[in-house]
Amino acid sequence: MTTPPIRSSLDDTRRDKAFPQLDARQLSALESYGTRRRFAAGTVLFNEGDRHVGMFVVLSGSIDITRGQGCEDEHVVTHMPGMFSGEIGMLSGRGAVASARAHEDSEVLVVDETALHRLIVSHAELSELIMRAYILRRVALLETEKGATTLIGSRLSSETHHLRQFLARNAQPHTYLDIDYDAETKEWMTHFHLSAEDLPVVFTPSGQQLRKPTNRELADAIGLGPEPLEGRQFDLAVIGAGPAGLAAAVYAASEGLSVVVLDAKAPGGQAGSSSKIENYFGFPTGISGQALTGRGFVQAQKFGAEVAIPRKVASFDCGAGKGTVAVIEGGERLTARAVVIATGAKYRGLDLPNLAAFEGRGIYYGAGFMEAQLCAQQEVIIVGGGNSAGQAAVFLAAHASHVHILVRSNGLAASMSDYLIQRINATPNITLHTRTEVVALHGDTSLTGVDWRPADAPVQLRPIEHVFLFCGAKPSTEWLSDCLTLDSAGFVKTGPDLTVAELTEAEWPLARAPMRLETSHPGVFAVGDVRSGSVKRVAAAVGEGSTAVQLVHLYLAEQRNEPTSQA
User: Fold this and answer.
1) CATH 3.50.50.60 for domain 348-473
2) Of all residues in the chain, what percent carry a pLDDT higher than 70?
3) Do residues 31 and 115 make contact, with C-beta atoms less than 8 angstroms apart?
4) pLDDT single digits (tens) 121-163
5) Domain 5-143: which topology?
6) Using CB atoms within 10 A of its CB, is residue 17 exposed (0-12), middle (13-18) or buried (19+)?
7) 150-220 architecture in CATH?
8) What is the pTM of this model?
């Protein structure tokens, strides 16, 4: 049998951990969580795209795992006795990224989704073994840069860029074919009678064709989106899946609360687009923002939090009686006894009339591996002087021919960590331009040039096609509809920052003052970058998210008229 593609990307140590073989004692421990079933050779256990697929543990016989469609099926691995199926997407009921078929007459232990969650929480040894295997399998699938979900588009298209970013940030295996660079796209275009005006097009594992889909349409078609939320009730709704929101979800779900996490795009928030974070406690060699927040995403699911992505909260009803109602784009409504707002902040754009025309095709608000490929061996501009800008500059310098950092100030010391400044100074293909700003963008279908203006010097035209914006912070609070008290910049005010006059105007109904992270509405808390006065660091966001859960418990106990003592 040939070496499976997924396993070829794993070294021997990772391979053993990704495809472990359970011993008799471990199999015996699993028995109480599953049901024994027999399958004849050739029986399909599940197909790519099927949702809520359980774990299949082979007791006798063998199971083939494949990816792809029809005659193009690609062998992934054959599970022998003691081995088990699945990968990390199973924990959230996502569509399967592979198919399973009995290779021969086999007996398996079928552990359904509910039992698997119970197993992972209650059995420490098996939990660690299964979780590690599932994570490594998803990583290996992503490293192949292939999948049954196929996206055809152009790197000059902002719509294509946004779909690629959505799939990548959600760690969804897929194949990307560029009409300008991949010869096989012509065959696809001819066979399916497609024109350039139809792009981007996505082909799903079930064979469905999606022309210019929205994130939600794409997610629902490939089994990435959540189940319907209409009318659902939760103890806690967390709005935003960045570090603060995920931390809140992990602690709340691990303490027995029913939790839903809502996010319009992907886990990670602004931190998820960071190529490398080197000053986060416990990671001396650094970790990418996507890897760090991806672990938080998995933890939240492990403890039973329901993560609904992509689901954008369009409005917020603070006057809903005992429960606060969130209205999701599309009309779905859910109720929560308490809410944690963790929607973060977005980088501000430049005050240029044609900026929007180049977003996704020359103007970017994050610098990940996908963007690095787009600007390989080209000059790039980074606008901004904070840590995110510094991390992006160091990362892109390994791919671009030259990186220009533009700041309006006289230097970086006031806004960037010293270790990043030293790294920038030591990198020969990074140049810092102080007191300099971008004043014009040029191009037709994509960005082709930039005018920048140094202080007390004439405007310079540079033929640079890629500009990364990491300047300022605009809070994501427009959806609140005057429901909560905000500061002058639009950030949510909490706790002691709320004045008596503001609480009076908000009709604060309780005898006590708002708790430290509580907003002008009881039971609604704000954490992370969206909160007025917060420290804009990942560690601070995680701390606030976890702290908010303690306050949620106090609030819920208060609503039940239980005696409490606030720590």
Assistant:
1) yes
2) 95
3) no
4) 999 999 999 999 999 999 998 888 888 899 999 988 999 999 9
5) Jelly Rolls (2.60.120)
6) middle
7) 3-Layer(aba) Sandwich (3.40)
8) 0.91
